[in-house]
Amino acid sequence: MTEKALSPLLSIHPSRGLIDEKFCVVVRYLPPFEDITLRSLIHSEDGDYWEAYGHYVSDDSGLVNVESNVSLGGTYDGLEPMGLLWSMKPVPGSRTGLRLRKKEIQTPVVVHISVYRGHMSQGFNEQVALASVVTERWYMAPGIRRVDITEGGVSGTLFLPPGLGPFPALLDLWGGGGGLVEYRSALLASHGFASLALEYMTPRTSGSSTSYVGNAYFEAAFTILKEHPQVCGDRIAILGLSFGTSVALGMAVYSTVIQPRCLVCVSGSHVQPVKGSLTDVFAEINKNVRNTRYDEENRVIWRDLLLPIPTDPTKKVDVGRLQCPILLIVGKDDQNWPASESAEDMKQMMEQAGNSHLLTTLSYPGTGHLIEPPYTPHTRSSNFMVTGTRQKLLVLWGGDTKPHSYAQEDSWKKTLAFLEEHLYRGPQSHL
């Protein structure tokens, strides 16, 4: 058989891997200098279809390699090996306000990748692909154990790496959407950390749909993690996103029970009533609800609800009292929280207190509020159910796809390095 008679061959390596692991897509046996389109497709757990596609031209040997060939157009352009994941958008005609999130972390994200002749931007279903492959991307590596936690009134899921341990650990706190979100903790466990994804701001954890758990709930969760036989009790970090940052900062400074080795705070703020609970944080925000703005598409912008950053010390966590290293991750186009202004104020407070050596800030231009693990599709806006109500809003999170996706990759790599430095290699606690 001559090489001209060969059909195009599409391959991906590795065909199975973690969601934050890069892959390489290669098309062989094309005609030289042939225009092709590579397209990825996911059927989400919510029943929606998401796609990305890039336009390529084969080289003189009939080869396209996404690691060395640039995309000339599509949902991404340039040399972007992972553009087939991070540039994904709902297919035309989809419901509005979608956000792609993994709910069942014991199954993979299944990505169908196909190659088509020509540079296509639509009509994929009407064309026959030259070749197709399927890849599985996992949040949960082989051997990770998933343990339901329902003791002491605390509800969550603990993910444990393979082996006996004890392992350094994290208390993983999501934001104002409430509920139990497991995928980040599963991925952290896949990198060697025990991680407790904590459920809060739900009727099950609060006793009603309109109240928020008090500080004792987080202290109980931290204690459960600390006392677990497979956790190294003096090597626990807190990772908070959005409202999770409010909890992390407040507990680290004021709690006598919670003494984390380090903090990672993503897209959050230190503005909250001193020694207050989540109820007090929301009450303070509700006072400024008049500052809510809407863009030209009637999407909600909430970033002004905590502005201006107060000068009253009773209205913000005294981060000058922090005694552990803290990593702040900030999107400079965050339209949901004043993360940039808060980070600058925290820096000034810590400089004045003499503990700024504990602070590391990662600030990313063109980056919005929802800073996720890498290669997760950027969501500039999506539907949001207001906690404790039946009100659904279209919220603007901010960010532009390419810089936001770069920020997700860079911040995740630096988060893992920060956690390794302070949980694995840091000095033993003398507490």
From TrEMBL:
Domain of life of the organism encoding this protein: Eukaryota
**What InterPro entries does its record include?**
AB_hydrolase_fold (IPR029058), Acyl-CoA_thioEstase_long-chain (IPR016662), BAAT_C (IPR014940), Thio_Ohase/aa_AcTrfase (IPR006862), Thio_Ohase/BAAT_N (IPR042490)
- Annotated catalytic residues: 242 (charge relay system), 334 (charge relay system), 369 (charge relay system)
**Occurrences of domain BAAT/Acyl-CoA thioester hydrolase C-terminal (ranges):** 217-424
Q: Which residues form the Acyl-CoA thioester hydrolase/bile acid-CoA amino acid N-acetyltransferase domain?
A: 20-151
Q: Which family does it belong to?
A: Belongs to the C/M/P thioester hydrolase family.
Official protein name in the record: Acyl-CoA thioesterase 19
- Source organism per entry reads Umbra pygmaea
Q: What is the lineage of its organism?
A: Eukaryota, Metazoa, Chordata, Craniata, Vertebrata
